[in-house]
Amino acid sequence: MPTVSGVGARLGRAFLLQGAFIGVAAIVSVFLANVMLEGVLIRQALRDEASFYWSHRDANPAHALPATLNLTGYIGDAPEEIAALAPGFHDWDDGERRNVVYVTDRAGERLVLVFDRSGVGRLVVLFGLLPLALVLLVLYLSTWLAFRASRRAFSPVIALARQVRELDPSAPEPGRFDRSSLPSTDDEVQELADALARYSERLSEFIAREREFTRDASHELRSPLTVIHISAELLLADERLSDASRRAAERIRRAANDMDELTRAFLLLARESETGLPTIALCVNDVVAAELERARVLAEDKPVELRMHASHRLHLDAPERVLAVLVGNLLRNAFSYTDRGEVEVTIDAQGVVIRDTGVGIAPERLAEIYRPFARGESARRGGFGVGLSIVRRLSERFGWPVRIESQPGVGTRVEVRFPDARAEPVAQGGQ
Predict the structure, then answer these.
(1) What pLDDT does 281 receive?
(2) Element containing residue 31 per DSSP (H, E)
(3) How confident is the model over 49-90, as pLDDT tens digits?
(4) Quick check: helix, strand or coil at residue 108?
(5) Is 414 exposed, middle or buried (0-12, 13-18, 19+ CB in 10 A)?
(6) Upper half-sphere CA count for residue 383 (Cβ side, 13 Å)
């Protein structure tokens, strides 16, 4: 995911790339200027010089040959290396200088002009590179100043994005948008900051109300649930109760147990969001065994066989109630949706695997089962469609990956892994 600082980095790269292009263009321009000086201007100057000399030689045979710092003329006494050159332009390196030689013939005489082009390089440096360097310096300075100004212009937006990124609705304290920490901004950015601040306040208020409602509702539900549970137990203890009434009372007790587990989960999530939960050293095997005893009542009147295998004892530092709620929801889900066959619980070195021979889940429904109140096509009475949603929240919060595989008519396999668990091998068949 791109970071907030990426805006400044991309802006810096854009300015650097622009400066590099300008520098390359300037160097190419100097090179082309040098080529033009040597290839066009020098040759044209030599042609003009030869024409000037011949025209004055006709009027005055004693007219002096060109003799300057860079240009030397010869009539009949040219150096041996260039005396026999054909008319036209030639390159000649005499060991000290790089020269351009221009040869012309007229009335049986030969004029040889030798131009020292090494001086052209000095002229290019003096009249080309130095001014260019000054221009590039000014250009790069202005580019750097523009970059600094652009970063200052973007800094409020970057600060806004950083604050928005740090707002965590799932944290115990979601945080609030702080406009006072922002640099001075334009009206448009200030308007955006005000809108984000208002949104942050509404979000914090909404989260607070949600947590308060969850906590209060869960507390309020526990009292009537206790009454229902006790009443169901009293009814079941009455020997005069008919079989039909006993089955009805048993369904009431199971529903009360399910609701009690649901309120426990809600209270757990609300408390964890507000204050966090204490972490203790616990044995996963013991927690699974306890929750298995609580959940197996769902299969008392069904031909379902329970199997439990443990090749390892897993030790974990975690909140006990969190693990109990997570495992309990998965076990109750397995027992609720299995009418015959078996529910098998396996504990290995990595985690817990729960496999059942229940109704299964269609592949197209697997992606939806974690949504709150999402229930399968074969949903049973007494379920509320939030168990797997709670499982997902807890697994993501504590880093316990949950994987579900299912096939309609065959059953479901749920795998919970504990990456930080310490595994201790046990005897075959042990728990």
Answers:
(1) 93
(2) helix 6-36
(3) 889 988 888 888 888 888 888 889 998 888 888 888 999 999
(4) coil
(5) buried
(6) 24
Q: Are 359 and 337 in contact (CB under 8 A)?
A: yes
The answer to whether the CB of 361 falls within 8 A of the CB of 322 is no
Nearest to 340 by CA among 377, 309, 290, 306: 306
What is the spatial distance between Cα 355 and Cα 415, in angstroms, rounded to a whole number? 9
How many whole angstroms separate alpha carbon 144 and alpha carbon 19?
9
Q: Are 48 and 66 within 8 A, CB to CB?
A: no
Q: What are the structure tokens assigned to 307, written together? A: 């199997």
Encoding tokens for residue 302? 């069904």
The token pair that represents 25 in the structure block: 């263009």
- Residue 25 makes CB contacts below 8 A (sequence gap 6+) with none
- The answer to whether 73 touches 53, Cβ cutoff 8 Å, is yes
How many C-beta atoms lie closer than 10 Å to residue 91's C-beta?
10
Structural domains in the chain, CATH included, are 6-149 (no CATH), 169-275 (1.10.287), 277-431 (3.30.565.10)
Residues in Cβ contact with 348 at an 8 Å cutoff, skipping those fewer than 6 apart: 311, 312, 423
Torsion 77-78-83-85 (CA) sign: negative
Pairwise CA distance, residues 407 & 361, whole Å: 6
* Residues 418/309, Cβ–Cβ less than 8 Å: no
Q: Which residue has the tokens 């003799």?
A: 67
Q: Mind listing the pLDDT tens digit for each residue in 400-431?
A: 999 999 888 899 999 999 999 999 998 654 45
Helix residue spans in 238-319 (DSSP H): 243-275, 284-295
Q: How far apart are CA 130 and CA 379, in angstroms?
A: 84
Which two three-digit tokens encode residue 410? 């065959």
Q: Is 255 exposed, middle or buried (0-12, 13-18, 19+ CB in 10 A)?
A: middle
Average pLDDT of the segment spanning 200-212? 73
Report the SS3 class of residue 178.
Answer: coil
SS (H, E, C) 301-347: CCCEEEEEEECEEEEEEECHHHHHHHHHHHHHHHHHCCCCEEEEEEE
The residues pairing with 317 across neighbouring beta strands, listed in sequence order, are: 281
